[in-house]
Amino acid sequence: MAIKDLPDTEYVLAGSAACPGCPATIGLRIVLKALGKNTVMIVPACCTAVIESVYPNTSFDIPVMNIAFEAAAAGASGVEAGLRMQGKKDTTVFAWAGDGGTYDIGIQALSGAIERQTNFIYICYNNQIYSNTGIQRSGATPLGAWTTTTVGGKTEVRKEMGDIIRAHHLPYAAQACISYPEDLYNKVKKAKSIKGPKYIEILAPCPPGWHFPMEKTVDMGVLAIETGAWALYEFENEKMIFNGKSKLLLEKKIEPKPVEEWIKYQGRFRHLFKPTRDEKTLKAIQDNTDIIWERYRKCYL
Q1: What is the pTM (predicted TM-score) of this model?
Q2: Which of 46, 82, 259, 289 is 20 to 30 A from 222 via CA?
Q3: What is the CATH number of the domain that holds 239?
């Protein structure tokens, strides 16, 4: 699927309340092109709850249920059960939540829905912060990053949500990035064709939250992949397959760029370079990335 061949139909309409360069809007446009009109979306508290515009208007041309922060997967489970009882088995139910509502506040409901084998798609658009409520630290925030609740830089590494999800032995899970629309589209199409719980996580570089120019959103995603700060993969029937440049990095057919090449363009890491370089933290960030990739190679090569 080349990008020029993506469906022309748009389900994210003009007039949304998204920030310029918003990665969530980019990702949602691609996701809905893959899912189509016969779709119900469940949205907890997150940026998207604002992006969709103020009631009674909406920027989304599909049915949407807004629900409490912790309840995206629980709400999707209820919608799926209700549609099934009505015999509407062709309608796709998917939850669309940020990392705060996935890694932290919503993890209990998500784990339960997957364990019950709920037939739905759960998509986390991961901007690595609680962006909608003022750029607070989440479990997805990387080591060293500034947020309003980690003003000196986060002192813990990010949670490996992919590992937690795969431990549920679900039929399909994947990681994607808004900078690779064809890859994201194909993964969503595949998830739609599989029965049972499916999980897709999309890296969503956030201009105001990460402090970079809004026209650099796609570039930040590309650098995340090229440095190994994020990986593109699919997990299907207990088998792990890496995609694109992530596959080449895994097999050591290409060398990753230093992670510093990704973080140096983000204002949230500015304190690691000025007034003096924080070599200890910069090394720790690179070391943590290297450890993740060595674990990938040990487990999946």
Answers
A1: 0.96
A2: 46
A3: 3.40.50.970
